[in-house]
Amino acid sequence: MSQGTLFGSTETRSILPVGLVKAFKLDIALEKREAPAQKAAFPNTKVPAFIGPKGFKLQESIAVLFYLISLHDAESPLLGTDVESKAQVLKYLSWATAELMTPVTVVIKILLNRVPFNKKALDTANAEVDQHVAQLEKRLLTHTFLVGERLTVADLFVASCFYRCFALTFGKKWRAEHPVFMRWFNTVIKTEYLSYFFDTFEFVDEPVKPQLPSKKETKPKQEEPAPAPAPAQPKKAKHPLEELGKPTIPLDELKRNYSNMETREGALPYFWNTFYNDKEWSLWRVDYKYNDELTLTFMSNNLVGGFFNRLSASTKYMFGCAVVYGENNNNGIVGAFLVRGQDYKPAFEVAPDFESYSFTKLDASKPEDREFVDNMWAWDKPVIVNGESKEIADGKVLK
Fold first, then answer.
1. Can you tell me the distance from the alpha carbon of 107 to that of 56, in angstroms, rounded to the nearest whole number?
2. pTM (predicted TM-score)
3. pLDDT for 219
4. 256-272: pLDDT as tens digits
5. 3-state class percentages of the chain: helix first, strand second, coil last, to nearest 5
6. CATH topology of domain 246-398
7. What do the Gene Ontology cellular component annotations say (predicted)?
8. How many CB atoms lie within 10 A of CB 389?
9. CATH number given to 4-72
């Protein structure tokens, strides 16, 4: 009996799942992304995607990887050999999906002309990728693999995530400057799980140059009177919220009080009685849209951390907390945020993944909305979800 169908082929996140099917000789059909069967089974065309016997459906890279390996051998050492190593494997998989792939995706989209050229965004993303490589090299200086001293799915997946970098930016010079990283990468891609793809892969010699916007044609000069000098244009704000000017009380005062005072006894009374001005600020409830896709609570918290990192350009104009409620394989993310002005979007849209969240404006005149903010910032009471009480498992503060 067929074990199912896997959708995805040369997309970065699909390289390893396909390799597992080939290496394990699983009776799983391989189909390209957006095949008719995938469109019929899933509301989106994200890959990898899997349809198994009796209508079993699965998406998201980590889930698909664990399913395929377990299908071959539920006790496979690729998943780790004890509780600690299994947790470390999950750590690297979560880091790769939530942290590493964010700047890598920015580089891909710009260099492949999928989005308009933005030099600052490209330089920032490339620098972040190099920082992630440096983070890996700290481990690889003294170890052969990322977890323990044997190959795991952590090595396989993280290595596959760099596929586009070696096709676009990691040229000969870069590779020569990173011998530790390259020793590990070359070891991993020669394994039976990835060799099918990388044996014929062509590494870029020189980094691909971005396609710059074409310059407008300049008209020939004509003998005309010189126009009057144009009035000086006002300097554009570096951030759209900068145009609102400085608030009555600097936001740093609130952040300082929150860090140094007891939340219930000091920071919250200061916020409501002294700091908050609804003409200068607005309050927002923020919910993650895809709670049904979350698995382990620490991975959900890593997701929040990645989101907060990408909000760094707006931290001068906002403050808040997001918590992870519930337990492993049954958790969600929600938070309360203070934002300069009356619209959430200028503050949040600096993060590419802000559309994965929904935003609901809160009314400080309503006791239930004030209580929600208090609970989100104090973390000392359960979250009520659809009438059910859920304990807070973890969380992060944006400040």
1. 35
2. 0.56
3. 44
4. 999 888 999 999 999 99
5. 50, 15, 35
6. Alpha-Beta Plaits (3.30.70)
7. cytoplasm; nucleus
8. 10
9. 3.40.30.10
